[in-house]
Amino acid sequence: MVAVGLACCKNDPGVADRTFVLFVSDTTRVDAVSAYGEAQKTTPNFDRLAAEGVLYRRAYSNAPWTLPSHATMFTGLLPSEHSVGMTRTRAGDSLEFLAERLKQAGFQTLGFSENDWISERFNLVQGFDHFRTMGKMSAHRFASELDSLMELRQPNIPAFIFINVMNAHGPFRYWRRNPFLERDLDSERAVEAITTIERRGMCSATELGAEYEILRQVYLHGVHRADAKLGVVLERVAREHPRTVVTIATSDHGHHFGERRLTGHQYSVREELVRVPLVVHGLPGVRPTTVDAPVQLADLAPSILSWANAQDLPYTVGQPLPLESRGLSRRPVIAEYADTTVSISGDKSGFLKFLGHVRSACGPEHRVFGDMRAFVRYPYKLISFERYPSELYDLSNDPWSRRDLASDKPKLVAELEAEMAEHLSALQPPPDDSSVPIETVPPETIERLRNLGYDVGT
Question: Which residues in the chain land under pLDDT 70?
């Protein structure tokens, strides 16, 4: 099936006129995107791309938070291979990035991010001719910054444009003009619900309680506003470069809203965090379709390079995305979380602690401590924990992984654990970057990350 992806664009002279757009709506769950049928009218721009392009119904992030997830998107490597966000915050210089390969192939590479993790500070923008990290922006300022970026666009050469937006990411706030809130909900109750959840910590939620329903309605408005920015990108890019535009729209991870008494992200590789929306639109000769086979964000870099006739990245676990559903044979999907602290200078404690939401109320029953991996060999999903017994789910009739089958199918658990171990052992490690110096993070960056909900420093 890889040949389908390659056949689309290999030796295609039209690549010289092509613009690739990779748009990431940070922290957007798949069930918050109306193209997937569970939410209503949240993402009209994404939905239009889905109606005209290739929609992936089972796309997975390889990590449950921003830094390792984007490093995977840009390298095609699993988090345990590139190590970014696993044992260090700064990407090693020896890692090879998507933008570097595209630049070598003659593409102009442009981008900006509203998330401070995706910045020169953490060495995630290797290969970009121009890249800005801006912080969360209003719609008006976003349009202005995009126009400024597009002014740098050189005519008559292909381009790669990356955009990350943060409207769906916390901290959450009440907006009066929110069409997704209950009609009789007053602002005081909404603000109280948001404040209560943030104060409780991640493991003290009542399962799908009333406050969480309010927070989810606030969140859906954030998803909607992020989608509006996608619309601005599509309009501006089409206006400035009216030739072929290939758009890839996705998210880096999801968010918990009271499921299993959890909130926030990290500390979990469950479906709420690692299943993400994904659409590819604008590839010449590719008919609108949906793909049900599991794919992963590690597939993005090899896909874009294939479609751009650019040199492949080395070592990559990803493979070009399938562009039709028939006859698929896909490799398993892996998502990883490392429960680690990374030594770093620049904050008072000497450690940048990836704690996100406080775990003081968490116990063994929540299973949020220690390293963990998800292994999806559809229809089964195995979750392997460092500190707890493995879990097993049948996604074909339990798509949100509510019923653990591990005690009923111990032989299958052992089989999948062995298969995952074999799959990981077969990976070729990238060059050793263990000597990469620890990055100093300035106080203003730490403060912005703290404002996003990351508990950095003490």
Answer: 1-16, 204-208, 242, 327-329, 340-358, 430-458
Q: Which pTM value belongs to this model?
A: 0.90
Distance of CA 83 to the CA centre of its chain: 16
Dihedral sign of CA atoms 235, 238, 244, 245 in order: negative
d(CA 114, CA 202): 24
- Strand ranges in 57-176 using DSSP code E only, listed in sequence order: 59-60, 108-113, 130-133, 159-165
Delineate the domains of the chain, giving CATH numbers in brackets.
2-328 (3.40.720.10), 336-451 (3.30.1120.10)
Question: What's the rounded Cα separation, in Å, for the pair 159 and 299?
Answer: 20
The 10 Å CB-count burial string (b at 16+, else e) for 400-429 is: ebeeebeeeeeeebeebbeebeebbeeeee
Q: Do residues 293 and 378 touch, judged by C-beta distance below 8 A?
A: yes
Quote the Cα angle for 352-353-355, to 5°.
150
Q: Summarize pLDDT for 78-87 with one digit per residue, the tens.
A: 999 998 987 7
Contact indicator for 54, 296 with CB cutoff of 8 Å: no
